[in-house]
Amino acid sequence: MKKLISSILILLSVSLFVVGAGYAQEGEPDWPTYSVQPGDTLYSISQRFGMTLDELVQANGVADPNSISVGFSLALPGVEWVSGALTNTTMPLGETLRSITRRYQTEANLIARLSGFVSPTQLAAGYPIMVPDGGIQYWELGRMAVDSGTSLLEMAVLSDNNPWAIKSINRLSGTWDSIPGDILFLPGTNDPGPGAFPSPISQLSFDGNSLVQGKTAVFRVALNGMPIDLSGNLLGQELHFFEDDTGEYIALQGIHVMMTPGQYPLSISGESTNGAKFNFNQMVLLTTGGYNFEEISVDEYLLDPELSASETAFINEIVSKVTPEKYWQGKFVPPSPYAGLYNSYFGTRRSFNGSAFTYYHGGLDYQGGTGVQIYAPAAGRVVFAGPLTIRGNATLIDHGLGVFSGYWHQSEIHVNVGDRVEQGQVIGLVGNTGRSSGAHLHWEILVGKIQVEPLDWLEFEYP
Ligand SMILES: [Zn+2]
Fold this sequence. Notes:
By secondary structure, the protein is α+β, with helices and mostly antiparallel strands. It contains nine helices and 28 strands. The protein is globular. Zinc ion binds at residues 344, 361, 363, 365, 442.
């Protein structure tokens, strides 16, 4: 993603660097303002609001288009259909177009025009939207979803509110103008949720607020008291929820690196201990990871699709068994003394022997030749250790909660199935066995059966 953004910046030759302060020229009309966001260029902003780059530059007295930074407040000359300060955000989980218009005290067609969508069905969670800056923070003012069979008047009484105050703050045309499932602000309540969530859920979020090819998605669910049996499904993969130390429920799921960007359904369902069932569904946005391409030559027999499929199925079977215990603590450490030195990155689209780029690199290749030590990057339990045709001498470590790590092409394996390993422990030696064109360590991480960017596990601490 970062690579993609920077390449766009370079393409347009209008990158935004130095911090400065925007100003409106005296005597000018009161134009709306837009706060520059990461990834923006003056050109892209001018296009978005239907003006020329020159007009935008002139109106803001920008001497050097390269001197605008993130957070710079730009006046938008000639834009008369909206006023005030505007900002970008993404559609959160559990919001609807109606709830968003209330939250930002604006109109649906204005958000649509600012954000460039024509139908609310485009508004998947994670979809980039432009909204008036500020808005009502739902943690400042409680919200509640309208149950079928409960009138607004009844909700007002239950929450000790004046129905006309509720009507006003929710921009309703009358107390009759609320529909089941609608999410209303209720002054005086300090319940942070539930947004569009069913009442047992107080918060549902996922890190980054959108799904990215090859990344580890982390879903967090907070409950209103009562414990619950949660399950979920995303992109055809079952989500496994585990309760953490804080009482939050967490599910980790890898997003396949070749998954076509677009909208995909997320569903979460559950049953509370008193037997109440609920089901939550929302479309979520999946965006590109911006991966590169490479061409590789190998022995032809190693490209046999049947061979490849049966070995993948074998690995898949092993990583399907989810251990409900978390073995790892904190960040992972590099599995190689050649930390930071890579032959090939995760996610790279690959052509073997001149084929189409239908293959991809499912791991991270470390430099360092035959005999270099391989370390366990985190605590876990060995679930496979032995020779495979494509992967060569291979080891798989279960780190718990559906997280596994794999080490391929080894010259020697120093662990056995069932062994508990500690972070930093030597588990084998680098080699050139299997489908490999030169000795190296191929390291991969699988989350919910899907290979993910291993560098993220070195950089971030996963719950
Ligand atoms: Zn590799």
